[in-house]
Structure formats: structure tokens, C-alpha cells
Amino acid sequence: MDNFNEDEERVKGLRPSREKKTPVWMNEYVSGEGISEDKGHMALMVSTDPLSYEEVVKSENWRLAMDDEIKSIQKNQTWRSTKLLDGVKSIGVKWVYKTKYNKNGNIDIQGPIGC
Fold first, then answer.
1. Is 7 helix (H, G, I), strand (E, B) or coil?
2. Can you tell me the distance from the alpha carbon of 5 to that of 91, in angstroms, rounded to the nearest whole number?
3. What is the pLDDT of residues 56-112, one digit of tens each?
4. Which of 90, 93, 99 is nearest to 56 (CA)?
5. 36: CB partners within 8 A, 6+ apart
6. CA 60, CA 101: separation in Å to the nearest integer?
7. What pTM value is reported for the model?
8. 18, 62, 99, 111: which has the fewest Cβ within 10 Å?
9. How far apart are CA 113 and CA 91, in angstroms?
10. Consecutive H or E run containing 65
């Protein structure tokens, strides 16, 4: 066993060491190091995006965004209303309401995302 450890140490000394660098694509992310636990929890609770249709209809901005999405769907003929055959189940659509921010923290896009 001692020979193994000695050989391992000798090989480590022969290998060139290299500096560890963060990948370029990670520069856009914040690690959260140094943030106190209280602030970390607060950051997770800040979202004001609606979670239900009932919340969406209370906001004029969200209703307008939803109307724009429906108009776009109709214009692009993404959906077509049709009568289902007997025994055929329709597929459902779920909308997720998200606010997207630009790099300065200002609202960039606010609207539904069809899933």
C-alpha cells in the first residue's frame, strides 16, 4: 500500500497543474455565494407572476398579453377549431404566465406561454 501512495504522489508531481477557470457561459449566472440565508429565501419569493387564470383576469396588462397571444394564434393559424368524432378525446392546453426581464431588471416581455 505504501508503494501505491508514493507512486501516486510522484505522478501528481509530474503532472502539470492548470488553473481552473469558470466556463464563459457561466459568466451570466450568479452563484449565490455570500448571500445570507434570509436574502436567499427572499429572492425566491419575489415572483409576482400569476399562478391561475383568476389572477390573470384581474390585471389589465395580463389580459392584454393574453388577447395578443390569441390574436397571434389566430393570425398564424396555429389552432383550428373542429368538431371531434365520437369517442375521441380533445387535448388540453396549459398556459404559464411569465414575466421576462432584461439585463437591467426592467420588464422585457410579459405574457402567456402555451404548453
1. helix
2. 63
3. 889 888 888 889 888 988 899 888 878 889 999 888 778 888 888 777 777 776 666
4. 99
5. none
6. 19
7. 0.49
8. 18
9. 16
10. helix 60-75
Q: Are 50 and 56 in contact (CB under 8 A)?
A: yes
> Is 99:107 a contact under the CB 8 Å cutoff?
yes
Instruction: Return the closest-CA partner of residue 43 out of 102, 113, 105, 111.
Output: 105
Euclidean distance between the first and the last CA atom of the chain, given in angstroms as a whole number: 58
Neighbours of 72 (CB within 10 A): 11
C-alpha cell of 88? 375521441
Burial class (CB in 10 A: 0-12, 13-18, 19+), 99: middle
Contact 67, 76 (CB under 8 A): no
The predicted-structure confidence for 88-99, as pLDDT tens digits, reads as follows: 988 877 888 888
Phi/psi for 23 (5° steps) reads -60, 145
Nearest to 61 by CA among 110, 5, 114: 110
26 residue type, one letter = M
